[in-house]
Design brief:
It is built from 5 helices and no strands. Helix 2 packs antiparallel against helix 5.
Length: 153
């Protein structure tokens, strides 16, 4: 017998081709961007995760960089963009049957660079994280249920 438990199906039957009901009565956007449990398919990752968060993050970063006293906007940027990115990436890792804690690996390289005072060209660390997010989006998810939930497709 396997020591991996597969969550049981809920009593509510989902219709094929229809999005599942939001978690705990939350609207879709709140459950998708704020709740790390469950799985995210490749399609939802690209359409509702990677592309919109990347575009809004770049736009916000560009606008903030061109304003005086830009440092005071750092905390709102972190709250608005970093947490949703972590959540979506964690659920994407869940879809490929890996723990969501792998999201921490996206921050290990920047932390190591800061701690070691490594001479790295500007933007290199961010580019490595961005490329990693692209690779995670291209890896097919586990077919059928896994330890993080039922197949999202």
């Amino acid at each position: 017998m396997s020591n991996i438990s597969v969550p049981e199906k809920s009593a509510v039957q989902e219709e094929p081709g229809r999005a599942p009901a939001p978690r705990g009565g939350l609207p879709f956007w709140a459950a998708f961007y704020l709740w790390p449990a469950g799985r995210t398919s490749m399609l939802f990752y690209w359409l509702f995760g990677f592309l919109p968060l990347t575009l809004t993050g770049f736009t916000f970063g560009f606008l903030v960089a061109h304003t005086p006293d830009a440092a005071r906007y750092l905390l709102p940027e972190v709250i608005l963009f970093i947490w949703p990115q972590w959540v979506v990436l964690a659920r994407r890792f869940h879809d490929i049957n890996m723990t969501g804690w792998w999201v921490a690996s996206f921050w290990a390289l920047p932390a190591a660079r800061l701690l070691l005072h490594a001479p790295v060209p500007p933007g290199t660390v961010a580019m490595v994280g961005w490329l990693g997010a692209i690779v995670i989006g291209l890896v097919p998810g586990t077919r059928g249920a896994n330890r993080y939930g039922s197949d999202p497709m």
